[in-house]
Amino acid sequence: MNTDDSSWWPMGDGGDKIEGSQATARQTAELLRSVISQQRVPYTNQAGALIDAVKAIGEQLIAANPVELAVGNIVRRVLHIIREEDLSLTTAAIGGLNLSAVSDDENDDDRDGDSTLSAAAVAAAARSTLRPPSLQTLLEDTPVSAAVPQTSSSGGDSEGKSKSADKSSRSRKLKHDVIEAVNELIQDIVTCHEQIAEQAVEHIHQNEVILTLGSSRTVLEFLFAAKEKKRSFRVFVAEGAPRYQGHLLAKELVARGLQTTLITDSAVFAMISRVNMVIVGAHAVMANGGVIAPVGMNLVALAAQKHAVPFVVLAGSHKLCPLYPHNPEVLLNELRSPSELLDFGEFSDCMDFGSGSGSPLLHVVNPAFDYVPPKLVSLFITDAGGHNPSYMYRLIADYYSADDLVVQRRATAGN
Amino acid sequence: MDARRVSQVVPKVRQVGFVTHSDPNPPPQASRAQSVPIESNSGTPSDSPDFSPVMIPPPRHHSENLSHLRSAAVAVPESSSRRPMWDDRVAVVGSYNPGNSLLGQPVSPNSSEVNSEASTTLGWFGRNSSGKFSAGSSFPGGGFDLTTVKMENFTQLEGKKPEAVPERGGGAAVEVHNEVSSSTAKAKTTKAERRAMQEAQRAAKAATKGKGGGGGVEVNNRESSSNTLKAKTTKAERRETQEAQRAAKAAGKAQGNKPVAAAGGAGPGNILRQPSQNRDDPAVGSTIAGSDRRGGDRPPERERKKDVPPPRMQFDDQGRVNKSKKRAVFNQPEAKNRVELFRHLPQYEHGSQLTDLESKFLELDSMHPAVYKVGVQYLAGDVTGGNARCIAMLRAFQEVINDYSTPPGKTLVRDLTAKISSYVSFLIECRPLSMSMGNAIRFQKSRIAKLPLTLSETEAKAALCNDIDRFINEKIILADKVIVRHAATKVRDGDVLLTYGSSCVVEMILLYAHELGKQFRVVVVDSRPKHEGQALLRRLLAKGLSCTYTHINAVSYIMHEVTRVFLGASSVLSNGTTYSRVGTACVAMVAHAFRVPVLICCEAYKFHERVQLDSICSNELGMLVLVLVR
User: Which residue stretches does the UniProt record annotate as biased composition, category Low complexity (chain B) (predicted)?
Assistant: First the structure.
């Protein structure tokens, strides 16, 4: 469906092949929403029942394609939503909180669409925290300003009030609230491009030269947003072998009136000395700030570092993965068919595994992803604003609950 | 004092060594000052760049020496007139040669043997200095000594022959030397080659630090020269000599010392064994330097200015472009949408030229068919790769020279040079020259220009063809052999070697190492649009090498398992940067990031004195269509 960011994973859950981490994330969220809505909830421990149901499905989904980290991210996000809603309902039912705390929450709970923050703050006040403290929850007034400016764009202030309204009828409300929140999440995933693109004018200026690799819908929107704001700049597009999605991106950019130059991947180093900024999409962003990106990205990042060019990664929040990578080049990678690199007909004699004695002479390596270590990344631009790689783990703490990480870890380890 | 001056002059000297092509004979005096201290270490016998297959050789300097040889009568008087004392020295040098060889090499009683021996060592030094771009400083002085030594030899060998013959005889002698160098001095050539390779390697690493790299080179060079002599002069010793020099100068006994000094200068061995002589030697050097400086420093300065390569044609200069278009043999359609960044480079619509050129075949009556053929091959991409293109061009020129007859009323030297120039501009139209071809052409032209007027036409043609053969053999084929032999020693069992694109030298290295029975794996990294690696892959597989193939994007994936990276180069520039197929820098960069050693394999004749900071200053643009079509 759409060609978001480099990822093109066949998924088992839609019947059709689903490509792109954005599409995957959206479909996962929709699937989980229907799971939740169809789940019968007992009177006691409703949240526990929902969590179990989502976990069971989630494990299957993750097992279907462990490399598509967006699936796991969304499952965790949904689990987190359930926990948060449950907490907020519980605390609301207890009703021991003064209004000021709630109103404080409302100031910051519009930060994300999923409306979890107010509940988190309440929970923190009520009892020991569910999750590690974050900048927003701990230091509400002082340093938040750095991250706040972008938050005005995301509309999510309505549910805080609705939540505070339905304190009494929590038994029925939980499921409803969760589904509401998941809808918000889906909405976020769908609109993450626009939210990222809104920040484009802050980063792209007149007469600059931008380099990108492969094709990413986020990057396309980002560049186009800057173009719409009357910025004139040039774009170099590295084609991104072996899928050559850069060709598509270049075509699209030209169609939208951007001055575009298509180059081969090998020419990246040659051209980067004239580039002002590298802007690329990602497949996933790990908790340490490392990036899983289409193959060739490490090359670009190294070249950018060599020439001191800022390397900017655009990533929707659904790409934030709470896991720390270990040997990601191997474990979070996929080796694709050699036919993309070599003509089977031409080299069939060398690649014949069946008849040859011993090991074949020729191996063809066609990995799908590169891992870009955090030190090569200058900036992340997510729908929640710009962040340093070292800040990623903080951001992740806002989106995920620590309990789910453990669960997921076991789940992924099982796969 | 002098020592300080020396250091100041060094940059110039370096240029002299490096810009080899034109500084042919830097008036020996020019850098005598610096050369002496070092030289004394490195041994006077520096000479004949002719021998080294590998040498950088500034073809011209090379030829220059040769010409000295040939027109010995002319060259020597000149030098001697400048410095009378040299005459003495010549004699001494001659007598000292054997002693010299005692140090490093077996003594041979036979005078001709001695000759060759000396010349090989000389060649060796020469190679060291020039091969490293260096500064070697031994060079200028060496050149001088060389001529003198040569003279000696020459007179020994050819003295009785009539005037006209010496030239030929000189050529023959050179041939012999070559033989000697290739056979007996194999080890040395490899050493020199290795040095050159290391140098290139280092240079590649230090690409950004042009200045620093140069310094490193110099130091290295000195070390190498001393090492090669086995004189093993340590720093302390060197300093000692310098101090001695200073002291000697202060004493002002220059006159009295001269003869002794000459003796000292003759052999480095003397320095080690006889410190007293050593003391004198620098003194002489300094005095010489002093006297030379006054008279001799200026002219080289001017010459040097000429050496600076003229700025390349900038294709955004409309006037010049139009001018060159008028001269063009066939019209090349300009690309419709030119890339802004590359305005200064020619951007043509490729594809149509071939037919255009073919249709003009009959009109181009001035074009020699061999050259035409090569041009078409370039254009069609049938002949690619620095070495192949260079050889094809030289072979074509050989045919041109064979078929050449001087038109009435013209001289061979001028007419042939003009002809070659026109052919070259035709070839440039077909495809921009590679650096190696530029060097080869320069060599060719200088050979023509240096042709003695006394030669008959047939003799001249034979000599030129001979020169071309020699160039191909020494600078390319033999150089490759040396590189291969040396680089194969860098391959160890269990290695995983990565190479990018298709470099013929690297391919030879891999095959040779495989023949040696080394167990290793090869990773062939390839990239669009040419996919040259696939052809290499096929050839390697046919020989039974175990290969891994991947695209350049995945190079950081595969680099984890790689233990060594071998890369070819189109040229090594004088600021230490390597100029090679697009993508090579990416591979080298990734290898660096993964702490994998990178070895650049480049014949020394591809070294070039231009400097370039990035790939945009000067480049060759391929067909735009190739990027779009998968």
Answer: 198-209, 244-255
- Best mutation target among B519, B546, B553 (most A Cβ atoms within 10 Å) is B553
- Min Cα distance B607 → chain A (Å) is 21
| Long-range own/partner contacts, residues B323-330 (CB < 8 A, 24 or more apart) | B327/B425, B328/B429, B329/B357, B329/B360, B329/B364, B329/B367, B329/B426, B329/B429, B330/B356, B330/B357, B330/B360, B330/B429
Assign domain B318-474 to its CATH superfamily.
translation initiation factor eif-2b, domain 1 (1.20.120.420)
CB contact under 8 A, B590 and A239: no
Q: How many whole angstroms separate alpha carbon A297 and alpha carbon A292?
A: 9
CA distance B488 to B509: 6
Q: Does B618 touch chain A (CB under 8 A)?
A: no
pLDDT in tens, A210-240: 999 988 999 999 999 999 998 999 999 999 8
Q: Do A302 and B628 touch (CB under 8 A)?
A: no
* Optimal mutation site among B557, B559, B619, interface A, most CBs of chain A within 10 A: B557
Predicted pLDDT at B259: 42
**The pLDDT of residue B131 is above 50:** no
In angstroms, the separation between the Cα of residue A161 and the nearest Cα of chain B is: 51
What are the structural domain ranges in chain B? 318-474, 490-608
Predicted TM-score (pTM) of the model is 0.65
Asked if ipTM goes beyond 0.90, one says no
Instruction: Give A301's contacts in chain B (Cβ within 8 Å).
Output: none
Give the residues across from A313 on adjacent strands: A280, A380
The predicted-structure confidence for B1-31, as pLDDT tens digits, reads as follows: 444 444 444 344 444 434 444 444 444 444 4
Chain B residues with CB-CB distance to A241 below 8 A: 527-528, 551-553
Q: Do B553 and A295 touch (CB under 8 A)?
A: yes
User: Does residue B498 surpass a pLDDT of 50?
Assistant: yes
Per CB-CB distance under 8 Å, the chain B contacts of A333 are: 557
Distances in Å between the Cα of B23 and the Cα atoms of A37, B55, B65, B443 are: 87, 15, 11, 13
Q: Which one, of A104, A151, A136, lies nearest residue A317 by Cα?
A: A151
CATH entry 3.40.50.450 includes domain B490-608? no
For residue B316, the tally of other CB atoms under 10 A from its CB is: 12
Chain B: residue whose CA lies nearest to A294? B553
Q: Supply angle C-alpha B618, B475, B504, rounded to 5.
A: 65
pLDDT at A163: 46
| Mean residue pLDDT across chain A | 78
Average pLDDT over residues B256-279: 40
C-alpha angle with apex B285: B281 to B288, nearest 5 degrees?
140
The predicted-structure confidence for B593-620, as pLDDT tens digits, reads as follows 999 999 999 999 999 988 888 888 888 8
Within 8 A of A266 by CB-CB distance, chain B residues are 527-528, 552, 581-583, 586
Residue A344 binned pLDDT confidence (cut-offs 50, 70, 90)? confident
Helix (H) / strand (E) containing A83: helix A69-94
Residues in A touching B341 (Cβ below 8 Å): 261, 271, 274
**Three-class DSSP category at A197:** helix
The 10s digit of each residue's pLDDT in A228-272 is 998 999 999 999 888 889 999 999 999 999 999 999 999 999 999
**What is each CA distance from B208 to A304, B106, B213, B576, in whole angstroms?**
15, 43, 9, 8
Please say whether the beta carbons of B184 and B592 come within 8 A: no
What number of helices (H) and strands (E) belong to chain B? 28, 8
Q: Any CB–CB contact under 8 A between B557 and chain A?
A: yes
What DSSP line would sit under B113-175, residue for residue? HHHHHHHHHHHHHHHHHHHTT---SHHHHHHHHHHHHHHHHHHHHHTTS-SSHHHHHHHHHHH
A370 touches chain B (CB under 8 A): yes
